[in-house]
Protein 1
Amino acid sequence: MAISRTIVADAFFSAFDFVYGITKLGFNFVGWLKENAYLRYQAVPDPHAPRRRGRKAKYGKTEDFSNPDMSIFNSFIYTDSKGVATRCLYAIVHSRTLKREIKIVICPGKDGKPIVYFTTELSMSSDRIVGFFRTRFQIEFDIRDAKQFTGLQSSQTRDRQRLDFAFNLSFTTLNICKTVIREDYPNLTLAQFKRLMFESDLASTTISTY
């Protein structure tokens, strides 16, 4: 099995030491930036500006996520796994914190605040950047649901093989539940579906007994 060259992490790891170490090892990094990230783009020389002595500016003004410069950004439509289309923006900018050029993607958040994804791989497609990060976030949802609904933390054994079986059984059950919900009960949450299965089994047991 080949090892992926892309590492995905949240904003806590979007720091120079971590990103520099990852890229030195030959990996690409996909992450998320905080609202106060200091980003700037390459300065575009004005051919009509008067000549001045000294070094020319390498970078232009800092980027404002809430009001991006559309002369720098390009737009595209990202469609998620549920078929919901969202208009996002992308551009290659310079990060002062990471001390390198990065490619960022700005997508609207649920609370109205922009969500800024980025990657050190400048040639990576914009929809792939968003897809990588959202796939990583889905793993956290699966662990949360497995803890709450399918007994991921219920096993008390210390045997390695039994723990492996219990963990696999928990996630397998979770995947089956989500598949049934998606195909037969699209309006139910996982908690509602679990209650429905519990009450159906209780009713079936009661009827068969009496």
Protein 2
Amino acid sequence: MGASPWIVSNALWERIEPLLPRKERRFRHPGRRPLPDRQVLCGILFVLHTGIQWEYLPRELGFGSGMTCWRRLRDWNEAGVWQQLHEVLLAELNAAARLDWSRAVVDSSHVRAIKGGGLTGPSPVDRGRSGSKHHLITDGHGTPLAVILTGGNRNDVTQLMPLIDAVPPIRGRIGHPRRKPDSLFADRGYDHDIYRDQVRQHRIVPVIARRGALHGTGLGTYRWVVERSFAWLHGFKRLRIRWERRADIHEAFLKLACCLITHRQINSLC
């Protein structure tokens, strides 16, 4: 039987450990020795995979208390650990020529925000209930390149350019780091000529479905990869419903999930 998905593998830990901030212990009155980062990360992944509430994290697992895991997740997110990890993983895929730069695909997905909080809003697709949106851009294979969290009432097209700008410079190949695909695919929710012009100004060819056009244009042949990526994201139960009032904590889960999906793509190379 395979290991539980919240157990941090050696391969993943080797990539994460150098990125974690170090805290020097006080010489006098050092206090209780902190729990090892790897065990705490297992606790964070347990919450991400199962969706369990922090206070119910089982102590017998040896991952520490829910509050300990919550604090480390907050601190590591503030230190930019997940963004750095994502860039490292993308560079590995790029070096192996496993990123499809011929096109990128964008889309969004709504999640209900049970407790409200920052970056929420009345959702037009959920009877005005409080919700948030996950905005995602992937390469042609469906590998996440960047993700943005907004309120549930934000129009998809307003996040088109921020998504493009959020793609980090990805290393791994000879020459300058790359961050722009050749073309961009999107559905009718992004149909606006002003934004098409802005995409062209970035030297990217916009391939966006037009409202009123008949279905069967063939764009779904390329756009399905982002739908699959959302299915992967929402396979993490903590992301199906937003329980966190603090937007940065939910965003940390979102970025960590993108890192795990990207790491799976690297494992598929073996």
Protein 3
Amino acid sequence: MTQRSGLALAVLALAAERPMHPYRMQQLIRERGKDQVINVGQRSQLYKTIDRLVRDGLLVERATEREQARPERTVYAATEAGVRTAVEWTVEMLAAPRRDFPEFTAALAYLPLITPEVALEALESRLAGRRAELEQVRSDLAGAGHLPRLVLIEGEYAVALLETDVRWITALVDDLRSGALTWDREELLELAEKFET
């Protein structure tokens, strides 16, 4: 069975909408703003995903198109099994998502590798980026206010996550600035040795 992923779900959903070629799928994901939640940056990954979906009987080649001087493009359609799978994946992703292992959380787990000063600088940089991203998503949502809420719902969720992230990182930065959170690597290494024996 094909491994579930956001990109595979997007491909199946688009191919269930109407048969289309991979380039058009990539365009629509971007045009609809879904590239904020679906990674379509590398076309090779899109083609690998399509190959897996075809192999597993969830997509079929419907036709081949050629526009003037452009190369041939294969048009894909979702099979009945593909539509059922897309529905099942959507329900599963909503009800019981897989556990993510974000890099940021991993970096927090190993914060003692760096000094509090370096951590503060890195976190201030992250905070500025997250604030800018939050304002951009808010602006995008405001500009798309004429669209039904249903097609913007992932943007609402992104705002909620970003707001939480900004609040939490702000508090962490404040603790580092005030000295409420600090550490000494040598002391931590000594402490770790004590617990190992």
